[in-house]
Design a protein that fits this description.
mainly beta; Methylamine Dehydrogenase, Chain H; 5-stranded mixed β-sheet; globular; 34 strands; 409 residues
Length: 409
């Protein structure tokens, strides 16, 4: 069966290399950011399935800690790191090309600068640099929890920096990543903003669509481009108008498109909803994945996978109707200690013919990309991470502890 692609990054009628292939390149039409194109699927990748600190590591570079995931171009690997760094590495050998510090002091408006300088990341929260950056192949766009959104060229030169002053809507900080939809840079910083990627100028703001921890998803309903937020708001991309609200809910994760006019929310209740031409929702099916869910769902052919923070894997038939029992019902992926807290913040990722999931303790499980999701290998690095790996050709780029690893033959 064919993979269902997301309209946020792959435009109908345009032939492009499959994401993850060695010749795939980020462009304005096909940007690379959170989970690659937002789906977490890299079907063109051909990564190794076994590695350790001394096996199949092409290079590793100290970059500092963060929950954000790396992004890649044909030449670079780019990450954010706490508290305010944007770092560019050479993807061939891990050499640091440049580091840019993104500070509130850079803002020219005094009131905005003062407000952002007063922001304090919640203790035991997601920090300031949890959002994954985005690139269109020419610029890198980054959002920080204090309200800064910026653009930096691939040469490391600053292009623009703006500050957003808005009361926080989440107790553990901000982690929603910027995305590009219909040529607009979307930032969910308490309110939902559309920015001109060339200048940072605000195109519209929606103050009704409040942010959660996850990242909005872009999709089409008929011919209309819309944003679906983790809190279930449906917002038109052209002008920021609210078309519907509370159609679903995902506290920590991001919704994903699962077909034309269909969107899936992954939480303790997993559900798929269909939006009609008037943007009214109808629930198609729902199932249970008991426990806290931090990672976003993954669509593989006609199966949706969801992993809980306890590292338990659930699978559902995306073509199901009504209440359905899971195809996989809490398959345990990691050994956990009683009352030890969440072990998996990362999202499940597809690369080639396998599924990958990293734990907060540095272990990565590799599974067959089938409904049975049988174990292929277990791999351990010295540090843990809450971020998800990304893939390009034979290489996997993985955050672990305070390092970025390039895993490959």
């Amino acid at each position: 069966m064919m993979f269902v692609t997301s309209p946020t990054s792959w435009s109908a009628g345009i032939e492009s290399p499959r994401l993850g292939s060695a010749d795939s390149r980020p462009t304005l039409q096909h940007p690379f950011g959170w989970r690659g194109d937002g789906s977490g699927r890299f079907p063109g990748a051909t990564p190794v399935t076994e590695w350790s600190a001394t096996k199949n590591v092409r290079w590793s570079t100290v970059v500092g800690r963060s929950f954000s995931s790396p992004i890649v171009t044909d030449k670079f690997v780019i990450v954010t790191s706490e508290p305010d760094l944007l770092i560019c590495l050479d993807r061939a050998d891990g050499t640091v090309w440049w580091k840019v510090q993104i500070k509130a002091a850079d803002l020219t408006d005094e009131n905005t600068r003062t407000a952002l300088e007063k922001y304090e990341a919640p203790r035991d929260g997601s920090g300031l640099a949890a959002a994954t950056p985005l690139t269109d192949g020419k610029s890198v766009y980054a959002a920080f929890a204090n309200g800064i959104v910026c653009a930096v060229g691939l040469d490391g030169k600053r292009q623009w920096t703006i500050g957003i002053v808005a009361d926080p809507t989440t107790g553990y900080g901000r982690s929603s990543s910027p995305i590009m939809v219909a040529g607009k840079l979307i930032a969910h910083v308490s309110n939902l903003y559309a920015l001109d990627p060339a200048t940072g100028r605000q195109l519209w703001v929606n103050t009704e669509a409040k942010s959660s921890y996850g990242t909005p998803a872009g999709m089409k309903v008929g011919e209309v481009e819309v944003l679906i937020t983790p809190n279930g708001d449906v917002v038109r991309v052209t002008d920021g108008k609210s078309l519907n609200s509370e159609i679903g809910r995902a506290i920590h994760s991001s919704p994903i498109p699962v077909g034309e006019g269909h969107v899936c929310f992954g939480d303790a209740t997993v559900s798929t909803l269909r939006l009609n031409a008037a943007f009214k929702e109808t629930e198609v099916w729902s199932g249970m994945a008991p426990g806290e869910v931090f990672g976003s769902p993954l669509l593989l052919d006609d199966t949706v996978f969801v992993v809980t923070g306890a590292g338990e894997l659930f699978a559902f038939d995306v073509r199901g109707k009504g209440a359905q029992e899971p195809l996989l019902n809490g398959q345990k992926l990691f050994e956990t200690e009683p009352n030890a807290g969440p072990i998996a913040y990362a999202s499940l990722t597809l690369a080639g013919r396998n599924l990958f999931l990293t734990s907060n303790k540095g272990e990565t499980v590799v599974l067959e990309a089938t409904r049975k999701a049988q174990l292929v290998s277990r791999n351990q690095l010295p540090g843990g991470t809450g971020s998800s790996p990304v893939f390009s050709g034979n290489d996997m780029f993985l955050r672990a502890g305070d390092r970025i690893y390039c895993i490959g033959k």
